[in-house]
Each structure stands twice: as structure tokens, then as C-alpha cells.
Design brief:
The structure is a single chain. 9% of the residues lie in helices and 53% in strands. By secondary structure, it is mainly β. Strands 10, 11, 12, 13, 14, 15 and 16 form a 7-stranded mixed beta sheet that branches. It is globular, with a radius of gyration of 17 Å. The two termini are 23 Å apart.
Length: 219
């Protein structure tokens, strides 16, 4: 697979999620696209085609009107514009003992979704060219990561070497799969999404088709 960079559509998702304070019990929902007459929702990292009136993982699609999906979750109703996301308080259900992640292909062939990092929901893009999970300085601050727990390092980019900080994330969850003690790198610049690199991806067997990327956890 080729290196994948954040798509422009996720800028709106990143801005919204950064504006919403959340806890580990918040459920993340994104309206990613259309599948015929169904809405393609990303619910806690899981992609699902949901018909009007149907409920998936506690999320009900109330109405679908062009580029807007009206969803109900956690006793609240939320209108999502195409490419938008929301965090809804409540127990999303499911355990961390899953072994498979399915990510739908998005704009430009990118695979993206919502991860829970140290208990906070953050939009991500799969980046097979990144050695570790990569976070912007703004996301690291929002997550409350302690600079004293990191070490200085250098990383090569298209524009040359930059100073970064390396640290370990307590947990990274996508869908029902949680990994612990995941290596990460914090760049000095702001980033609208997290790059899900090989410190996470190397724990999975990956295969893709025209519609999705499937990650099966290695034994």
C-alpha cells in the first residue's frame, strides 16, 4: 500500500472533535457517506450501512435528508452533515476483546475512522508509511500527555529533519480492539487527525479490497 495522508474532508471532523470535551464513556459517530439508500456511519471506529429506522450499536438513524443524517444515541438526537462527527455521552457497549477492524475506503482511497486514545476519541487516517502513531502537538496537549514522559528525537519528512518527541500511549482502541503501550511520536505542528502508523498496524494482518481495509489481530 502507498503512504496515506489526511484527506481534506476530515478537517471538519477534527475541528469538531477538538471543540468537544469528552470522557472515556463517550460514543463517537461520524457520517462518512452513502451506501444506496443507507447512511455509512462510523460508530466507535466500526463502519456500518444503516437504513432509516434501523439501530446499530445503540445508534438509530432517524432521518436521512441529502447530506444530513439525523441520528439518535444515548437519549439524544444529533444532526450530522456529511463528513461531520459527534460525540454522544453514554455507554457504547462492546468489549475490548475484539480481533477484527473493518475500515471503509474513503475519499482519495484513504482509510479513516475514530480511535480512542487514552480514553479520548480522535479521528485518524491509516498511514502505512509512518513508523509509529503520529500526533500533532495540539492533540497531545488535548490528551494531557506529559512532555516529561517523552524523549527527544529527530524524524525525516519531505521537508527535511524535524525535532519530535517519542512516548508511549497507554491505550489505543479502534472498534472493539484495544492495544496497550503503543509507541507514538508527537510533532511540533498541529494536525487535524492522528496518523495510525505501524506501532499499531504491525499487530494485524491487513488485506484490502475495493471497498474496505480489514485488520485481523495477530495471535
Amino acid at each position: 500500500m502507498s503512504r496515506m495522508n489526511p484527506s481534506g474532508r476530515l478537517l471538519a471532523i477534527g475541528a469538531l472533535l477538538c471543540a468537544l470535551a469528552t470522557t472515556a464513556n463517550a460514543q463517537s459517530i461520524a457520517f462518512s457517506g452513502m451506501l444506496g439508500e443507507k447512511a455509512l456511519l462510523i460508530i466507535d471506529g466500526h463502519a456500518a450501512g444503516v437504513a432509516v429506522g434501523a439501530t446499530v450499536q445503540g445508534v438509530k438513524l432517524v432521518r436521512l435528508d441529502g447530506g444530513t443524517a439525523l441520528v439518535e444515541a444515548g437519549g439524544k438526537t444529533q444532526a450530522l452533515r456529511l463528513g461531520g462527527a459527534a460525540l454522544v455521552a453514554g455507554d457504547p457497549g462492546g468489549s475490548s476483546g475484539g480481533s477484527r477492524i473493518v475500515l471503509p475506503v474513503g475519499s482519495g482511497g484513504h482509510y479513516s475512522g475514530l480511535a480512542t486514545i487514552n480514553g479520548h476519541s480522535i479521528p485518524f487516517v491509516v498511514d502505512t508509511g509512518a513508523t509509529t502513531v503520529v500526533l500533532g502537538a495540539d492533540v497531545a496537549t488535548a490528551l494531557g500527555l506529559d512532555p516529561k514522559a517523552s524523549t527527544m528525537a529527530a524524524a525525516m519528512t519531505a521537508n527535511g529533519a524535524i525535532a519530535v518527541r517519542r512516548l508511549t500511549l497507554n491505550s489505543v482502541r479502534v472498534g472493539d480492539v484495544t492495544l496497550y503501550n503503543v509507541d507514538a511520536m508527537v510533532t511540533p505542528r498541529s494536525m487535524p487527525v492522528v496518523l495510525l502508523g505501524n506501532s499499531f498496524l504491525s499487530h494485524f494482518q491487513m488485506h484490502s479490497d475495493s471497498n474496505s481495509l480489514v485488520l485481523d489481530k495477530k495471535n
